[in-house]
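Quick one, probably user error.
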């Protein structure tokens, strides 16, 4: 399990981990040599030392042809520590860049996966879960990678400090390895516990975020109906669970940090007693040995603590991998298709069936529909009859379960969806308002906007006075903040229409685009759109049937089936379902 996690985390930064290992190893060796210089300072005559380390030090001095005088040894010591410092600074510098890149890299990949996945698949996720994934869990994965690097560095340092005593006193050192057994046992237990907690934590974080976003999105309703307590208590109970896991993490951290220390000291004390009493070793050598050993133990503890923190991030990595996998499986297969659609041609839906995943019944069943170019086609029918589903099909947002959609006789399967969508304007049933100025909302941050056109459109749609006034003089810079919650429903709709009018596409889809407007404004917009009729294709969805009076062709939908079609007058004469609907609205 740990190995799998290590492999997964290591694959996040790949070969660069090798570079870091190499730098850490070089720094560790420099530190090892530096520290080795302390031995000759302690020993009266390094020239006669019989230990392997003593011989090694003599060899170094022979290599640079220097006598082993006290000053030379000190110079060497300082030099080695300089090299060590430079290497460690280099490592930090390299690591900082690496971690920063890693963070933007994995976040970018997840965001791309989210937006590349099929729309219907995306609707299965809630915003809180995805937000938590993109913001919190990604940072946790990044922290995990950092801990992996720390772990590697500590492991290198621990090895250096183990190697030095081995070179001095192999028997003592190897006997001390016995210490590793209880520490490893303790580590294992802690790691298992940490891993389980980590997975639970990511789940709770996701839920907490969902509840929060849900609460904020529905704040108006929740507050106005005195439901704050119910909604916030859901959030609080999740927060309590998070706190409980933090408490456990904290305790585990404490145990991991402090429990092995007395063990280390105990074994060291035992070694001092055995070797000073039983064997003939100088106390300075034993103390130096203990110092080295203590350094090694300290680094081993660091290994353990980094390993624990790294395991804390496994839940996040698991979530990240699972989420990306699931999103990528449903990624839309685009957009190598070169075929650009000819929007100056009719669109045909033939024998289309749409089954949403997990839905009890089909949203559309074997429908045939024709949208002649430069005409106005309207879809009417009861709520849930499949109107929006048709609009989503026409703009390539969803793919039919069976049947074919074509434009100019060319199947949607063989044209570039992106090119298609870039030539379509779509006022969705839920108005889309962004945090930004009116100008930014209309042009979607276009770098070179046509200011005059934007102003004209906003004035035509009576949007001159909406949003918070900005310091810049022109009203187009008024700010629409708070996801547009400060706007009225009709203002949000008009702003969405303004954006599509500015885009001036060949095909315009309007899904209940004027449902929240008063008759006067609706008439104004109808007239505005009427003036464009003949120059582009309109697909209009409306409950208010007055809006579809002038349509060239009306399709009536009933539970996913087209029951009638024709012009307004034809349908009235037929005296069918549409005629009934018109009578009921008696406009
Ligand atoms: N993403 C989805 N996943 C599952 N089912 C869906 C999804 N979107 C829509 N449906 C279902 O498909 C059916 C048709 O929905 P659609 O949105 O097309 O209706 P509509 O005619 O636009 O209704 P309304 O007038 O209320 O907007 C509904 O029963 C709806 O519950
Ligand atoms: Mg709809």
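Nope, works fine. Designed sequence:
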């Amino acid at each position: 399990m740990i190995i799998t996690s290590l492999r997964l985390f290591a694959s996040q930064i790949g070969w660069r981990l090798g570079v870091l290992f190499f730098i850490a190893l070089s720094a560790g060796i420099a530190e090892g040599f530096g520290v080795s210089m302390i031995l000759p300072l302690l020993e009266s005559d390094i020239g006669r030392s019989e230990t392997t380390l003593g011989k090694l030090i003599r060899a170094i001095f022979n290599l640079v042809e220097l006598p082993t005088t006290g000053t030379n040894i000190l110079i060497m010591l300082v030099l080695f520590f300089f090299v060590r410092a430079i290497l460690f600074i280099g490592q930090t510098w390299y690591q900082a860049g690496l971690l920063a890149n890693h963070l933007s890299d994995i976040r970018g990949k997840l965001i791309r996966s989210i937006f590349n996945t099929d729309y219907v698949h995306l609707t299965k996720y809630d915003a809180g879960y995805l937000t938590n994934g993109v913001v919190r869990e990604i940072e946790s994965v990044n922290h995990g990678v950092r801990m992996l690097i720390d772990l590697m560095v500590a492991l290198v340092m621990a090895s250096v400090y183990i190697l030095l005593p081995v070179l001095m006193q192999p028997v003592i050192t190897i006997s001390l390895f016995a210490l590793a057994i209880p520490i490893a046992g303790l580590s294992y237990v802690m790691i298992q516990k940490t891993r389980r907690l980590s997975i639970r934590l990511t789940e709770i974080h996701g839920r907490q975020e969902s509840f929060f976003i849900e609460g904020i999105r529905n704040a108006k309703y929740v507050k106005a109906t005195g439901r704050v307590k119910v909604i916030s208590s859901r959030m609080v109970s999740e927060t309590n669970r998070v706190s409980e896991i933090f408490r456990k993490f904290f305790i585990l951290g404490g145990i991991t940090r402090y429990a092995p220390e007395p063990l280390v000291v105990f074994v060291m004390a035992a070694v001092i007693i055995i070797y000073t009493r039983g064997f003939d070793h100088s106390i300075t050598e034993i103390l130096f040995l203990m110092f080295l050993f203590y350094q090694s133990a300290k680094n081993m503890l660091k290994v353990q603590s980094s390993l624990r923190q790294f395991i804390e991030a496994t839940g996040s990595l698991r979530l990240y991998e699972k989420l990306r996998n699931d999103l990528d499986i449903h990624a839309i297969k685009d957009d190598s298709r070169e075929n650009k659609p000819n929007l100056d041609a009719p669109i045909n839906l033939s024998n289309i069936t749409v089954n949403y995943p997990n839905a009890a019944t089909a949203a559309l069943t074997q429908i045939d529909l024709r949208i002649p170019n430069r005409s106005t086609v309207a879809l009417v029918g009861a709520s849930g009859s499949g109107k929006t589903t048709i609009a989503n099909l026409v703009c390539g947002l969803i793919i039919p379960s069976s049947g074919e959609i074509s434009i100019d006789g060319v199947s949607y399967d063989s044209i570039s969806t992106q090119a298609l969508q870039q030539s379509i304007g779509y006022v969705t049933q839920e108005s889309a308002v962004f945090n930004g100025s009116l100008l930014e909302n209309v042009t979607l941050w276009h770098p070179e906007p046509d200011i005059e056109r934007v102003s004209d459109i906003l004035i035509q749609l009576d949007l001159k006075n909406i949003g918070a006034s900005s310091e810049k003089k022109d009203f187009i810079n008024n700010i629409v903040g708070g996801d547009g919650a400060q706007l009225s429903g009709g203002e949000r709709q008009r702003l969405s229409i303004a954006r599509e009018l500015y885009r001036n596409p060949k095909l315009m889809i309007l899904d209940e685009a004027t449902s929240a407007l008063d008759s006067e404004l609706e008439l104004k917009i109808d007239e505005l759109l009427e003036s464009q009729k003949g120059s582009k294709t309109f697909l209009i969805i409306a409950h208010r049937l007055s809006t579809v009076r002038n349509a060239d062709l009306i399709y009536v939908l009933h539970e996913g089936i087209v029951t009638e079609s024709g012009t307004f007058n034809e349908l009235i004469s037929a005296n069918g379902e549409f005629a009934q609907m018109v009578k009921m609205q008696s406009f």
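The chain has 22 helices and twelve strands.
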